[in-house]
Design a protein that fits this description.
The protein is an alpha+beta fold. About 25% of the residues lie in helices and about 20% in strands. The longest helix is centred in the C-terminal third of the chain and has 22 residues, at about 250-270. The termini are far apart. Bound molecules: 5,6-dihydrouridine-5'-monophosphate. 5,6-dihydrouridine-5'-monophosphate binds near residues 61, 62, 79 and 153.
């Protein structure tokens, strides 16, 4: 070991300016042998329609309701909703048993009628349609609820129960923990610097370039400086915007392009249908201006070294804080080098 510190060789902790958490980076550990669990590779669904699928057009869902013969995106109320409109009011301020009942709505968003079309396989037009749907849903639910969480859980490795490309939307009034943390950090940064945290971060990452995976006229994708998951990415706007509902039509087209580019790279990384969780965070729908916020999306793929070796957030991570071996700069370099043509189309 040399005496001069280097980010790519020596252990260090990095601060997540958005959440206020730290991550331990141990770059020299990338070479350790792996004799642990080998996952099953996520394989591509071949057929456009599956008669057994609860989400395909015209099919019956578990509760007996029939899906429409939809031909674009399709939204329905989750039959097993995590948040319900009719939950009774209840709360306790006991410091050791603090609780508050939570009302809300849970919806499922089918991305396409085609059972096999994951995000990277959607055309720009189809992806734009999905962004329109996210916007419409946030607009509608944001009139009722303060928080609208748009997310996608993809692949059995992430606990996704159905391969039909779909995401979910949960709406509620209390701000979830992670959102509260991000709000606090962004507000503090604005108060201390009179500037927007993620706007400054975007400018700095673009100038540095080391963690940039891809960018276009309106959007930037980086492996954030503080990434905890090996190939985690952050999708950032290059313009001021607080909520997904404020996107202009041309910004949706460029967003469709950037989402296609990043998800294609993920599939090309290990040449599988890459599992991940992704979602959007922006200002709450509380009718306040929120100049501290910048809307952004995060992708969290669980894979580490190959299509079959995943990153486990266990042991030290559960007892102390997240830890990673591969540096964010190395991960960005790998993702950057990949083709933007999907390997199935080559
Ligand atoms: P996941 O694949 O991430 O589990 O999401 C699928 C969702 O679809 C899940 O929340 C809902 C489940 O409750 N669902 C229905 O609402 N109706 C069905 O008939 C099947 C699945």
């Amino acid at each position: 070991m040399t005496h001069r510190f280097s980010l790519s060789n020596h252990s260090h902790r990095r601060y997540n300016a958005l959440t206020g958490e730290w991550v331990l980076v141990s770059p020299h550990r990338t070479k350790r042998p792996w004799q642990g669990q080998i996952e099953k590779s996520e394989i591509f669904v071949q057929s456009s329609y599956d008669p057994e699928c609860y989400l395909c057009p015209g099919n019956m869902r578990v509760n007996g309701e029939k899906n429409e013969e939809y031909n674009s995106t399709y939204v329905f109320a989750n039959d097993f909703a995590a948040l319900n409109l009719k939950t009774p009011e209840e709360s306790s301020a006991d410091p050791l048993f603090n609780m508050k009942s939570e009302q809300g709505e849970s919806r499922v968003v089918c991305f396409s009628p085609d059972h096999s079309k994951t995000l990277p396989l959607l055309s720009i037009k189809e992806m734009s349609c999905l962004i329109d749907t996210w916007q419409e849903q946030c607009l509608e639910l944001g009139r009722i609820w303060q928080w609208v969480q748009v997310f996608e859980n993809k692949g059995s490795l992430m606990g996704c129960s159905n391969p039909h490309p779909h995401g979910q939307i949960w709406a509620q009034n209390q701000l979830p923990t992670l959102v509260q943390r991000k709000q606090k950090s962004q507000l503090l940064y604005l108060l201390e610097n009179d500037r927007n945290l993620l706007e400054d971060y975007t400018t700095r990452e673009l100038a540095n370039g080391e963690r940039v995976v891809v960018h276009n006229t309106d959007w930037l994708v980086v492996v954030p400086f503080w990434a905890a998951w090996p190939f985690e990415t952050l999708v950032l706007p290059k313009f001021s915007i607080q909520r997904i509902t404020d996107l202009h039509p041309h910004q949706k087209i460029s967003l469709a392009d950037i989402l296609q580019q990043i998800t294609t790279r993920y599939d090309n990384l290990f040449e599988i249908s890459c599992p991940y969780s992704m979602g959007w965070h922006g200002a709450p729908y509380d009718e306040k201006p929120h100049p501290e916020w910048t809307v952004h999306a995060s992708f969290f793929p669980p894979l580490l070294r190959s299509s079959t070796v995943r990153k486990f957030m266990v042991g030290y991570e559960m007892m102390a804080e997240p830890q990673r071996d591969l540096t964010p700069e190395q991960a960005a370099e790998q993702l950057r080098a990949l083709s933007t043509t999907h390997y199935l189309k080559r």
